[in-house]
Amino acid sequence: MNNKRIYILNGHPAQKSLSKALLESYADAAREAGHEVRMAHLHDMEFDSDYGFAGYTTYKPLEPVLEKVLNDLEWCEHLVMSTPLWWGGLPAKLKGLFDRAFLPGRVFDTQVTKFGIPSPMLAGRTARVIVTSDTPNLFMRLLYKNAVHHQLRKQIFGFIGFKPTRIIQFSGASHAKPAAVERWLKQVRKIGASAS
């Protein structure tokens, strides 16, 4: 197995979270398997999450932490991100990171299009997203049609070139029993060892 450059982004805005614990388990296993790992935590990042403009003719200069996110995305071969599911979507600060940092000329090219869709600038990379939620997986599929999964796969990471984007969801996260958490940590550790 070839060693990979893996960028790990903890997308939970709190200092302590299940999302963070899961990613630390992944990171430990990936390092032990010989992969090169860079890890960042949303809770450590200070930036204005409000894009604040219409269109792309004007935008705010990126804060250093957002520049670092972009540099790490360019550096990596594989992205691993965790996020809680809040009100059917991503936490506001995580969405703000995408709103601010995912700009034309950095992650997609509006000058080169196919059927009117800009070309991705980070092609050739893969992604894994770990979602924690209270919504049962069956409800996510049947009632909500896995909407946030489609957003992450197609409209965010797929749009900039990360394919495939694999998603794993752990439900009942807010009041999970220790045995369930331990099972999830082991599952994520196994995924981390294979860098998938």
UniProtKB/TrEMBL annotation:
GO CC annotations, alphabetized: cytosol
Pfam families: Flavodoxin_2
Coiled coil: none
Oxidoreductase in keyword set: yes
Record key words, sorted: Oxidoreductase
Tree of life domain: Bacteria
Molecular functions per Gene Ontology: NAD(P)H dehydrogenase (quinone) activity
Flavodoxin-like fold domain ranges (all copies): 4-189
Keyword Transit peptide attached: no
Homology family: Belongs to the NAD(P)H dehydrogenase (quinone) family.
This protein's name: Putative NADPH-quinone reductase (Modulator of drug activity B)
Record organism: Amphritea atlantica
